[in-house]
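request received
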Amino acid sequence: MWVLVGIGILIAGFAVRLNPLLIVVAAALATGLAAGHAPWTVIAELGKAFNDNRLISIAWLVLPVIGLLERGGLQEAARRLIGRFRGATTGRLLLAYFAFRQGMGALGLTAVGGQAPMVRPLIAPMAEAAAERRFGPLPDALRQTVRAHAAAVDNIAVFFGEDIFIAFGSVLLIKGVLDGAGYPIAPLQLSVWATPTALAALAIHGARLVWLDRQLRRTMTPDPAA
Amino acid sequence: MIGLGFVYGLAGLMFAAMAGLSAGDRANPKRWGNAAFWGLVATSFLAGDHIGGLANGLIVIALALLAGLGALGQGRPVTTSPAQRLQGAERLGARLLIPALIIPVVAILGSLVLKTIVVAGQPLIDPKNATLVSLALGALAALAVAAPMLRPPLLAPLQEGRRLMDTVGWAALLPQMLAALGALFALAGVGDVVGRLIGQAIPLDNRLAVTVAFTVGMAGLTAVMGNAFAAFPVMTAAVGLPLIVRRFGGDPAIMGAIGMLAGFCGTLVTPMAANFNIVPVRLLELDDRWAVIRVQAPTAMALLAVNTALMYLLVFRF
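response:
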C-alpha cells in the first residue's frame, strides 16, 4: 500500500503547481523508499532508469535544423503557402492534417509529424495564418487556442491511427500480454478491432474542427482589408 | 555499425555545445543555470554508460533541483529580425519546407531500407534501433540541405537550436524522467497494488459494470502512469482476463484492442504524458500549461464513451 505514496506526491505536486521535473523525481525517490530500498540504492535505481531511457530525448536532435530554418523564414513561408489556398480555413487545414497524420500512422509511418518537427514550424503557423487571412490579427487568447488545437490534432490523429498498423508497439504489447496469458491472437485481429474507434476519432474531432471554424466566425468579424 | 552509441554521442555533443554557448550568453541573467543544466544533460549522454547508477542518480537529482529552484532562463542568441525572415520567406518560398520534410522522409527510408543494408558483414545501422538512428541521420541530412540554401554563420544551427531548447526548458527532460519514474513504479510493484484495489472494488455480476470498470479503469490508470503501455498489463490482469474473458466469455482480441484505445483517451488528458501534452505548451509558447489538455479533453471523453459502448456491444458477441 505504501508504494502508492508516489502517486499521491504526483497529484499533490501538480495541484500546488510545483515544478513537474521536481515532482517526478520526488515521487520516484519516495516510491523506492516506500518499497523498502535503501536511499543510495533508490538513487542508483533512478539513475539507471534515467540512463536507460535516454532514447526518449533523442527527438531533440531535430532542434538545430528546425531553428536554422526558422531563422531563414520557415514559419513565414508556411504562412504564405496557406495564404495561396483560397478555401483554406483553420478548421479545414487542421482536419486535412488530421486525416494525413492518421493515415500515415495506420501505415506505420508515425515519424511523419510530431510537435517539434511539424507542429511548431509548419502546422501551427499555417493554422494561425488561415484565420488571420479572413479576420485580420487574432486576439492573443484566440491565437493560443488555435495553436493548442494544432498540437491536439497531431496527438489525437496519431494515437487513433497507429493501432491499425499491425507492427506498432502497442499492438505487439497487447499480443505479448495475451499470448503470455494463454490466449494466442493474430496482430491483424487487433488492427481490425481498432478501426471503428479510429473512424469515430476522425468523425468526432473532425466535427469539433468544423465547430472551431464556426467559433472563429462568431468571435471575429471578417477583416475588410484581408 | 551506426547504433545508439553514435546517436547518444551526437546528442551529447549538441547539449555540450548548448551548455557552452549558454555560459557565454550575457543577455540571459540565469546563464550559469542554463549552462549547468545542459552540461549535466550532456554528461549523461556522453558518459552515462560509464559512471554507474549512483552518479547518474545524482545527475537526475541535480537536474530536478535546478529546474525546481527556477535556475533556468531563456537564452537570447542573436537571430534574424521578423523583417529578415519575411525576406527569406519571399526569396526561398516553399523551398524552405524541403529540409523540414527531409527529416521524416529519411526517418522512414532509414527504418525501411537502411536497416537491410549490410557492409562488410555488419549491418550499416543497428536494426533494433533503426527508427531512432534514422531520425538522427534525417536531422543531419536536413542540416546538410539547409546550410547551403541559407548560408548561415557557422554556429547558427547550434545557437538557433539553443533558442528553441531554452523555449522548451526543463520540460525537454520530463518525458525521459517520467519513463524513469515508470521503471521505479514497476520495481516497487505499484501497478499490482492498483490492480488489486480495482479488482476488489468492482461488482462481478454485471457485464456493463465490468466493461465500464475496464475501459474507465484503463483511462484512469493511464492518466496516473502517463502511459497506456504501463496500464495495460495491470488492468488486463486485474479485470480484462479474469472478468471480461473468463467469467463472461468475452473475446480477448477485442478486449485488448479496444482496452488499449480506452487507455489512449487517458493519455490525452494527463500532464504525465509530457511529450504530448506539456512539451507542445512550451514549444508553442502557450501561457496556460493545461492549454493542450483542455482542447483534447472533449474528444477524449467522447472517445472513451465510444470505446466503452463498442466494447460492450462487441466483446461478448464474437
